[in-house]
Amino acid sequence: MPAMLMYPQFDPIAIKLGPLAVHWYGLTYLVAFGLFLFLGIRRLKDQPFASITTPSRWQRKDVEDILFYGVLGVIVGGRLGYCLFYKPGYYLSNPLEILAVWQGGMSFHGGLVGVILSMVLFAKLKGRPWLQVADFVAPCIPLGLASGRVGNFINGELWGRFSSPDLPWGMVFPQSGSMLPRHPSQIYQFLLEGVLLFIVMWLYSRKQRGEGQVAGVFMIGYGLLRFIAEYFREPDDFLGLLSLNLSMGQWLSLPMVLLGIYLWNRGRKQPLLPPR
After folding, report:
1. Which among 48, 99, 149, 167 is most buried, taking Cβ atoms within 10 Å?
2. pLDDT digits (tens, 9 = 90+) for 125-161
3. Do the Cβ atoms of 128 and 55 come closer than 8 Å?
4. Residue 5: helix, strand or coil by DSSP?
5. How much is the pTM?
6. Are the beta carbons of 52 and 58 closer than 8 angstroms?
7. What is the enclosing helix (H) or strand (E) of 14?
8. Cβ(188)–Cβ(209) under 8 Å?
9. Where are the alpha helices (DSSP H) in the chain?
10. Which helix (H) or strand (E) holds 6?
11. What is the mean pLDDT of the chain?
12. Cα–Cα distance between 116 and 48 in angstroms, integer?
């Protein structure tokens, strides 16, 4: 029988100081926020943001404010999205459980809606076009997503579907209830939605694009890569596969791709105004 990799069973607690326990998953969120701040400050030097003066110049304070609103959007949107998309019946019957975020249950697609709403709010408060804000933010997101997938792997959650025993990197996740090898789908998503999407987004955004096109490429890229990765990820046991044998993650990714195509095509007819 071919040798199989065993999940290394990480201790989810990184640091413990008396009653205080700092989890690796929480640290990956902090890394994600730090990466966003670093890349956002770097992005201030890129066009058109380096030359925009109306209603004011882009500055570090804007990046910090976007991060603050974005964190709220991720937490609130991610939690409400999970409750609405994945277990609506349960949380309708147990509404107070919605607040029990420490029990787990966050949705990327819900978090995305929360971030979009937070960007709309930021744009309104600052008097900026919200698609300009979205274009600024989009390239700064993928590495944060990659960090989150590292957290999923450390936690030993969101494992993949069964793989061929001959797959060299097939991994056994004992917590799944089976000793058969599976795809380490967390690593696939780390590489696809994180590293690869970041490279594509950063290179694409290096040139001045039409308004909304950078955000559109992010929506298309993430939607397609998540759709592909879902073929290797084990569906939630309480949902299984839905219509057309697609997972909930795949169905939620399709509107992203359609919206991304719309934004990108719209941007071809809506070039960014020249710096003023």
Report:
1. 149
2. 999 999 999 999 999 999 999 999 999 999 999 999 9
3. yes
4. strand
5. 0.91
6. yes
7. strand 13-17
8. no
9. 24-43, 60-85, 88-93, 108-126, 130-137, 142-155, 185-189, 197-204, 213-229, 248-269
10. strand 5-6
11. 91
12. 21
